[in-house]
Design brief:
This protein is mostly helical and 91 residues long. The protein is built from three helices and no strands.
């Protein structure tokens, strides 16, 4: 399976955004702060790599797709809920 530059950039931007969201939730940020941090990370990564690699922004956003963003957000929400539940049980 070969991925295009647009798909690799979209994957990297989505993963970085989700990582920042998870870290923000872990350190105690609210949902709005976490979502804003993830969105800003995604946008900064996409713009930075698009300028660096000379890829059209529309191609990267199209390669990302709604499905991966929605799936990533659900995973972060589930993992943060599990972590908070375990922390409550352990204390």
């Amino acid at each position: 399976m070969s991925m295009t530059r647009e798909q690799l950039t979209a994957l990297l931007a989505t993963v970085l955004g989700l990582l920042v969201c998870a870290i923000t939730l872990h350190i105690g940020g609210g949902w709005a702060d976490s979502i804003a941090a993830a969105f800003l990370t995604y946008v900064a990564t996409v713009i930075g790599l698009a300028v660096k690699m000379r890829i059209p922004l529309v191609a990267i956003v199209t390669a990302t797709g709604r499905g991966s963003i929605i799936a990533g957000v659900v995973v972060v929400l589930l993992l943060s809920s599990v972590a908070r539940s375990l922390a409550t049980v352990m204390s």
